[in-house]
Design a protein that fits this description.
Length: 279
C-alpha cells in the first residue's frame, strides 16, 4: 500500500532589512546625518539647562535643517540627494570642529563629550558616505545590500558609540567630588558659574603660595589654566578642585578656561580672570 507524505510548508520569507533595501553607503549617509541631528538635540539640551534659548536658533539652522535634509534626500534621490547635505555638513564642520577637539579628549565632560562624539561620528559618516553614494549614483553602480564585513563594521561602530556615551556618563558621575574640609582650609574660593569666574581678580605677592578651591557649578567642563605658573587643571561639572601654585614674578597675568577662551594677539579673551602679582 503506497503511503503519501504531506508537503512541508515553505518557511515565510524573512522581512527585508535596511541593508537589502538600500545601498550600504546610502545607509551610512543617513546614519551620519541622524547622528548630527542628535548632536543638535544635545546642544539644545545644554542651552535649556543653562537658560539660554539662543541655542534654539543654532539647533534649527545648523543641525536640524542639514540633518533632516541628509536623512531624506539621499534616501529618496540616489544620484544627487546627498550633494546639498554634504556641502552643509562640510560648512558646519569647518565652523565647529576646531572647538570640539578638547571635549573629545575628556570623556568626563558629560554632555560636551557626547556632543563632540556625535558630531565627529556624524560628520565623518555623513560626508564620506554622501560622497561615495553620490559617485555611485552617477556611475549607476549603487546596489542594495552589504557584505558581511560591512554589516559587522556598521553594527560594531554603533555599539562602540553607545558604549563610549555610557562610559562618559559613568565617568562624569564619578568626577562629581568636593574637597575635604581640611584641604579647603586656608584656600580662596573661586566659583565657576554661567561660563564665568565669579572671582575675576586675585592680588598676591611674588613667590607666595596660592591655594584656590575652584568649584564648577556649570553643566559644562572647564579648566583653570595659568601657563606662567604651570597650572592647567581640568574641572568637570559639579566638581571642586584644589588649584595650588607659586605666584610668578611681579606682573599681571591672565588665567582662563581652555575650551571657552579664544587666544588672540592681545591675549586670552572669553572666560578669563586676572592675577595681579606685586613684588
Amino acid at each position: 500500500m503506497a503511503t503519501t507524505t504531506s508537503p512541508i510548508a515553505a518557511a515565510p520569507p524573512a522581512p527585508p532589512s535596511l541593508f537589502s533595501r538600500k545601498p550600504y553607503y546610502t545607509l551610512l549617509t543617513v546614519t551620519g546625518f541622524a547622528l548630527l541631528t542628535l548632536a543638535g538635540f544635545v546642544i539644545l539640551i545644554m542651552g535649556l539647562q543653562a537658560g539660554d534659548l539662543s541655542e534654539l536658533g543654532m539647533f534649527i539652522v545648523f543641525f536640524l535643517v542639514p540633518g533632516v535634509l541628509g536623512m531624506i534626500l539621499p534616501w529618496r534621490f540616489a544620484r544627487w540627494g546627498a550633494i546639498l547635505p554634504v556641502l552643509l555638513a562640510l560648512a558646519l564642520a569647518a565652523m565647529i570642529l576646531p572647538f570640539m577637539g578638547f571635549a573629545l579628549l575628556h570623556p568626563e565632560g558629560g554632555l560636551e563629550f557626547v556632543l563632540a562624539l556625535l558630531f565627529f561620528a556624524g560628520a565623518a559618516l555623513g560626508i564620506v558616505g554622501g560622497v561615495v553614494c553620490t559617485i555611485q549614483g552617477f556611475r549607476r553602480t549603487a546596489r542594495p545590500g552589504a557584505t558581511l564585513l560591512q554589516r559587522r563594521a556598521y553594527g560594531g561602530g554603533l555599539v562602540l558609540l553607545v558604549g563610549l556615551i555610557a562610559a562618559s556618563f559613568v565617568l562624569t558621575a564619578l568626577a562629581r567630588t568636593a574637597l575635604a574640609a581640611d584641604v579647603r582650609a586656608g584656600t580662596t574660593e573661586v566659583q565657576v558659574k554661567d561660563f564665568s569666574f565669579t572671582t575675576r581678580l586675585l592680588r598676591v605677592s611674588a613667590g607666595e603660595t596660592v591655594r584656590l578651591a575652584v568649584r564648577n557649578d556649570d553643566t559644562a567642563l572647564h579648566t583653570f589654566t595659568l601657563p606662567e605658573a604651570g597650572v592647567d587643571i581640568v574641572i568637570p561639572a559639579g566638581t571642586e578642585r584644589l588649584v595650588e601654585f607659586t605666584a610668578p614674578a611681579a606682573g599681571t597675568y591672565t588665567w582662563y578656561c581652555v575650551p571657552h577662551t579664544t587666544i588672540t594677539d592681545a591675549g586670552p579673551e572669553g572666560m578669563v580672570g586676572t592675577l595681579s602679582v606685586t613684588p
